[in-house]
Specification:
- The chain is 74% helix and 0% strand.
- The chain is mostly helical.
- The chain has two domains: 1-91, Rna Polymerase Sigma Factor, Chain: A, CATH 1.10.1740; 114-198, Winged helix-like DNA-binding domain superfamily/Winged helix DNA-binding domain (Arc Repressor Mutant, subunit A).
């Protein structure tokens, strides 16, 4: 039988009181959405599951500190985002985010709802998909897969100058097509700003 609560205040109070039913409700109602959101940030199923699981453990350990009027959905998504940042620092040290970027993105997350974030991530990925085929391929091999220009040139059987040209063109197109918040999402996904020169 599916568990339900009359309102979020009663639900949060259940969590604070250590009610296993409330915890089960938390997992059943948020797990898929949080994993989907985490995957949109980190692009790895196992890491997404780990981030969400750590959020659940943290909430359970700190449940007594929850405020009765907490916006739990917002709290959960911010916790997943913070978990993503921690994971990001571990798995992508070469592209480590500067503290100012982390702070900027943290503020960005706080002011946007889950749906808005998911929509923006989707829009950024759509703009990348809309790049000319060779530009898209070179861009993703470089910024997503971490290949050097020489490696990309060998893989695509083109010159390194051509690789540089495709990547530069991709950044030029994306810089024009993405607005302010989407540029913030680009920074979050790839660890770099569009205004950088390559």
């Amino acid at each position: 039988m599916k568990i339900d609560y009359i309102n979020e205040v009663i639900f949060v109070q259940g969590l604070k009181n250590g009610d296993s039913t409330a915890y089960k409700y938390l997992v059943e109602n948020y797990h898929h959405r949080l994993c989907t959101y985490a995957y949109g940030l980190i692009g790895d199923n196992d890491s997404s599951e780990d981030i969400v699981q750590n959020v659940y453990i943290k909430i359970w350990k700190q449940r007594k500190k929850l405020k009765d009027d907490v916006d739990l959905t917002n709290y959960l998504y911010k916790s997943v985002y913070n978990g993503f940042v921690d994971q990001y620092r571990k798995i992508r040290p070469v592209f480590s985010l500067e503290k100012i970027h982390i702070d900027t993105l943290g503020a960005f997350v706080q002011e946007d709802s889950e749906h808005s974030l998911e929509r923006l991530i989707s829009q950024v990925k759509k703009e990348i998909e809309n790049l000319p085929p060779k530009c898209k391929q070179a861009f993703l091999l470089s910024k997503q897969d971490g290949l050097t220009n020489i490696e990309i040139a060998e893989y695509l059987n083109i010159s390194t100058k051509s690789v540089e040209g495709h990547i530069t063109k991709a950044f030029t197109i994306l810089r024009k097509s993405l607005d302010g918040k989407m540029k913030g999402i680009f920074l979050l996904l790839f660890g770099m700003e569009l205004k950088q020169k390559f």
